[in-house]
Write a structure and sequence with these properties.
The complex is a heterodimer of chains A (71) and B (942). Chain A is mainly α and 71 residues long. Chain A contains 4 helices and no strands. Chain A has one domain. In chain A, 75% of the residues lie in helices and 0% in strands. The longest helix of chain A is centred in the first third of the chain and has 15 residues. Chain B is built from 29 helices and 36 strands. A 7-stranded mixed beta sheet of chain B has the order 13-12-27-26-25-14-15. Classes of the chains: A mainly alpha (71), B alpha/beta (942). At the A-B interface, helix 1, helix 2 and helix 3 of A face helix 15 and helix 22 of B. The structure holds iron/sulfur cluster (3 copies) and FE2/S2 (inorganic) cluster (FES). The site of one iron/sulfur cluster has 15 residues of chain B, from helix 7 and helix 12.
């Protein structure tokens, strides 16, 4: 699916949780939010994009969160 | 009174005192002992004792005024003949309602009244349903001595300007019921009584009903005891033979209605739809949509034969149900074979019944074998589900509508109830007229800001897209000025989340002063509103799509819940957090598992125990990962991984944002099945069309914004032979997964078995109690009017959770190219995409969408009122006429989306809520320019 959109959506999720004081918790919350609301092909396509084109455009918190999602 | 009429006790029940109980009193009426609450009128007490006192000006939905003098009684120990409608009961009273003297007095009153009334009863449309006729009989009047030769009003001209009802002043007995209904019930003050005595007349506005402030709610028509104000359909039809109680299928208020019918059950004529006093959401009131705009149900455009075609460019071919269903099922299965199990999905409708929504999601999960099901609530209130679920633990509003009668401060955010939830708006206005304070937070000066006898104490006219800034600033004031309810927070909320939130909102960058530049709201206004909300007594928040349909929609819902928790405004009457749901069954479609990540009752698909329970009941294995949401379905369609859609009762090709994108996605699919009343915009992209059934043609339930489950009852057979739930069942069978329900009540029984919050719901109980508010189970067998009394049971430890709400500006910002912000909304007379209301006489009230633009912005562009203008965003461009008005602020334009040709959603973009993907309809950066003529539709983009 359109990677530009997926990146924007992921960053917005990151934007909400980035304001939380406990960074570890916030990363976990981003990961959990994505796992609980994204259909697997969205996660798969975002990851594929990262493999092929790097993580440019993704916020730090989202990168950290994606690393925690089960494969 | 004929047996089909609703009972009328003459005057309303007395207002309960603050502690909710009015002490009972005992009195005797015609020797019968009766016990009633204090404050009850003698007339009502008599009616409760089974004694009917003749009356003309009194009716139990209006406060008594004692105008007609027909209801006189004798009271032992008192002189004279007091009017029973305005005389309150007293303990030990002995009332006599019949005596020769009373009979004579009443006959005189009736005789005078009838001396100025045409005596053409036999040919009058109200014959047999006329209170004047009934009363003449009740007082035994046989002859009118004065005749009609004296001065009278029989030659006065009729007013037939309103498309739904007529006014014949010749028949008016000047009882003032209509005037009082318009004031007390509706709150429009559109009709007045001019002149006194014989000269007294009822006048609507300056010239006619249509030109007046009248909003065609029909309240005056309902209370008129004569044929003076009468529905045109009632004049045209015969007399009422049967009444079926049902629920309005338009907005989320969920008004109870009586379908009054004539003719045989298999082909009845609707004489009229009247609001039911038993309807707990509306208590006998209605708006123009539910009351009058039901003609679409039998409109000639209804498609009643299934149709198929191979390609969307081909003409439709009418086929049998069997062929259409086999074709659709065959295509879905072919797509799944070729492109995988997850290549198909469905959209469930917020207009269909709970039972129908349940079946569609069951079909997707059990027959398609995936979670690709979403409800159109995605594009309206999905942030409510998320925001309230995360903070309060339950994805629903906390109150009943009646609760507003106990509110001292009412905050309306991003909602326009006068247009979108009219019957609730009437209740709200009544409460404000009685002294409650009102805060409106809206980019536009909505009707509540300055309505007849209602004026907002504060109007925070924020820039579109800055709700979170304003709500966080309100919290800042409450926290830093020590206006919190510390005891509530300590007892009822999570400590750590509160501390984090407190520290966050207290920061200076969240002060009203710091956020004023972003929001455009002066800091002093925000401070005053925060103080009023926190310290003004019971404070209740009502919000709508102006909160949810934003990039930060979920954050704003969370911010609202934070405010209510911090000030202790939860868990009792008069307070709470109340989402005003747009369509009739938005709440229900979410409750029924309409979201791709949740099974019925908001239980996540990853929860193994919940899945196991459905797997046992349905005999299938269920996937544990979320499915596609509506916008994701369209994105996936464009990349080829989603190719088949079953779309019931929705029209995404008109209602969803960035229509160009939606249409391209629909066109890319291989099998689109549309089930609807009409060939809507989405049907242009469909390969199979399955005729839908209107709410008049089926049994089921709707759940309104108060979580109230009410019955929808079949009034006539489905025009196409099958109700929607039967169509879904047949499609499932064709897919090889038979479902066997004989009646929607059996579907509800299954829902109750599998959903703890619905465990106590069943048709028998609904029949008995009229309606039920979920949760309804062993702990609350008659339902739950007020949520979170004493705790938040769905949250861990029962504690509410505060969440930090950092304001993030929307991507949609005014730029040099697109310097204005477009926001969208609704009007009273039209509903959603207009498919229903555009096919009624409501067109007389609102015939096109217009673009509201401030005089300053219009002047800069040389635009005059009524000019054609071009409206352009990064997503697309369209044209419509301008309305130059100061209702919008400079820099902001506004329109509605009821007409496909105006193309509001061609312009809206793919920006969406971070948590739920709910589109940001409410903020689009646009440019507006004057056009000399409208271009042909083909010239428009896309
Ligand atoms: S229809 Fe409603 S708004 Fe119009 S005059 Fe009657 S009561 Fe008032
Ligand atoms: S129009 Fe009907 S309700 Fe109004 S004053 Fe006349 S008779 Fe009464
Ligand atoms: S307020 Fe809503 S539910 Fe009630 S009649 Fe109007 S549209 Fe129907
Ligand atoms: S009914 Fe009591 S005065 Fe009219």
């Amino acid at each position: 699916m359109n990677p530009v959109k997926l990146i924007r959506m992921a960053n917005r999720i990151g934007g909400f949780f980035a304001a939380m004081p406990d960074r570890e918790q916030a990363i976990g919350d981003v990961a959990s939010h994505i796992a609980r609301t994204w259909e697997p092909r969205m996660i798969r396509d975002l990851r594929a994009h990262m493999v092929n084109h790097g993580a440019a455009g993704l916020s730090d918190i989202v990168r950290a969160a994606l690393a925690r999602l089960p494969r | 009174m004929n047996a089909l009429q609703e009972p009328d006790l003459g005057t309303p029940a007395p207002q309960a005192c603050a502690d909710g109980v009015s002490p009972p009193l005992t009195l005797r009426i015609d020797g019968i002992e009766v016990v009633v609450p204090s404050g009850t009128s003698v007339m009502r007490a008599a009616a409760l004792a089974g004694v009917a006192i003749p009356r003309l000006c009194a009716t139990d939905c209006l406060q008594a005024v004692g105008a007609c003098r027909l209801c006189l009684v004798e009271i032992e120990g008192r002189k004279g003949y007091p009017a029973s409608c305005t005389t309150p009961v007293e303990a030990g009273m002995a009332v006599r309602t019949r005596s020769p003297r009373l009979a004579e007095l009443r006959r005189n009153v009736m005789e005078l009244t009838l001396s100025d009334h045409p005596l053409d009863c036999l040919t009058c449309a109200a014959n047999g349903d006329c209170e004047l006729q009934d009363m003449a009989a009740a007082v035994g009047l046989r002859e009118v001595r004065f005749g009609l030769s004296g001065a009278n009003h029989l030659a006065e001209p009729r007013d037939d300007s309103n498309p739904y009802f007529g006014y014949d002043p010749a028949k008016c007995i000047v009882c003032y019921r209509c005037v009082r209904a318009c004031e007390e019930q509706q709150g429009s003050f559109a009709i007045t009584a001019a002149g006194r005595g014989f000269a007294a007349r009822i006048v609507a506005g300056a010239s006619s009903f249509l030109e007046s402030e009248c909003v065609s709610c029909g309240a005056c028509v309902k209370v008129c005891p004569t044929a003076t104000l009468i529905e045109r359909t009632a004049v045209a039809a015969g007399s009422v033979e049967r009444v079926v109680e049902t629920t309005c299928a338009y907005c989320g208020v969920g008004c109870g209605f009586r379908a009054e019918l004539d003719g045989p059950p298999d082909a009845p004529t609707i004489v009229r739809m009247t609001p039911s006093k038993r309807g707990a959401a509306n208590l006998g009131h209605a708006c123009v949509k539910g009351r009058f705009a039901w003609g679409y149900a039998t409109h000639k455009d209804r498609v009643t034969k299934p149709m198929i075609r191979d390609r969307i460019a081909d003409p439709w071919r009418e086929v049998s149900w069997d062929e259409a269903l086999r074709h659709a099922a065959g295509e879905f299965r072919r797509i799944q074979r070729q492109h995988g199990r997850d290549a198909v999905g469905a959209i469930v409708s917020s207009r269909c019944t709970n039972e129908e929504d349940y079946l569609v999601q069951k079909l997707v999960r059990a027959a398609f074998g995936n979670n690709n099901v979403d409800t159109c609530a995605r594009v309206c209130h999905s942030p409510t589900g998320y925001g309230l679920g995360q903070t309060l633990g339950t994805s629903a509003g906390t109150q009943t509508f009646a609760s507003i009668a106990h509110a001292d401060v009412i905050m309306v955010i991003g909602a326009n109830p006068g247009a979108a939830h009219p019957v609730f708006a009437s209740r709200l206005k009544r409460r404000v007229r009685a002294g409650a304070r009102l805060i409106v937070i809206d980019p536009r000066a909505i009707d509540l800001v300055d309505a007849p006898h209602v004026r907002a104490d504060a109007h925070l006219q924020l820039r579109p897209g800055t709700n979170v800034a304003v709500l966080t600033a309100l919290a800042h004031v409450i926290v830093t000025e020590g206006l919190m309810d510390e005891a509530f927070v300590a007892a009822r909320c999570e400590r750590q989340s509160f501390v984090d939130w407190h520290n966050f909102v207290a920061r200076s960058e969240n002060s009203p002063e710091a956020l004023a530049e972003a929001s455009g709201v002066p800091a002093a206004q925000v401070r005053a509103a925060a103080r009023l909300y926190a310290t003004g007594g019971n404070a209740a928040i009502y919000y709508g799509l102006g909160v949810t349909e934003h990039a930060q929609g979920s954050t704003a819902v969370i911010a609202i819940a934070n405010l209510a928790m911090a000030t202790g405004n939860l868990g009792r009457e008069g307070v709470g957090v109340n989402p005003l749901r747009g369509q009739n069954n938005v709440q229900g479609s979410c409750d029924m598992g309409g979201f791709p990540h949740e099974l019925p009752g908001y239980r996540h698909v990853s929860d193994a125990a919940t899945r196991a329970c459905f797997e046992r009941a349905w005999g299938v294995e269920l996937p544990p990962t979320p499915g596609l949401r509506i916008p994701n379905m369209f994105d996936a369609a464009l990349d080829g991984s989603f190719r088949g859609l079953y779309c019931q009762g929705e029209d995404p090709a008109q209602s969803d944002p960035d229509i160009g994108h939606v249409k391209a996605a629909l066109a890319a699919m291989e099998c689109v099945v549309v089930q609807d009343l009409f060939l809507n915009e989405t049907a242009r992209f469909a390969h199979v069309f399955l005729p839908g059934s209107s709410f008049l043609e089926k049994d089921g339930t709707f759940t309104n914004a108060e979580r109230r489950i009410s019955r929808v009852r079949r009034v006539m057979p489905p025009l196409a032979g099958m109700a929607d739930w039967q169509v879904t069942m047949a499609l499932s069978e064709a897919l090889g997964y038979p479902m066997n329900y004989g009646h929607p009540s059996e579907i509800m029984d299954e829902i109750a078995r599998l959903t703890p919050t619905f465990a106590g719901v069943g048709y028998d109980k609904l029949e008995r109690l009229g309606s039920l508010q979920w949760p309804c189970n062993d702990a609350a067998p008659e339902g739950t009017p007020t949520m979170h009394v004493g705790g938040f049971p769905s949250r861990p430890d029962g504690k509410g959770r505060f969440m930090i709400t950092q304001y993030v500006p929307s991507d949609e910002q005014a730029t040099r190219k697109y310097p204005l912000l477009l926001t969208t909304g609704r009007v009273l007379a039209q509903y959603n995409v207009g498919a229903q209301t555009r096919r009624t006489a409501n067109l007389r009230f609102h015939a096109e969408d217009r673009l509201e633009i401030h005089p300053h912005d219009a002047g800069e562009r040389g635009i005059a009122d009524g000019d054609w203008v071009g409206l352009e965003s990064r997503a697309g461009a369209t044209e419509l006429r301008a309305e130059v008005t100061a209702r919008v602020q400079p820099g902001v334009v506004y329109t509605t989306f009821h007409f496909p040709e105006s193309g509001a959603n061609i312009v809206t973009t793919d920006s969406s809520d971070w948590a739920t993907d709910c589109p940001e309809y409410k903020v689009t950066a646009v440019q507006v320019s004057r056009r000399t003529r409208p271009s042909a539709p083909a010239e428009r983009v896309p």
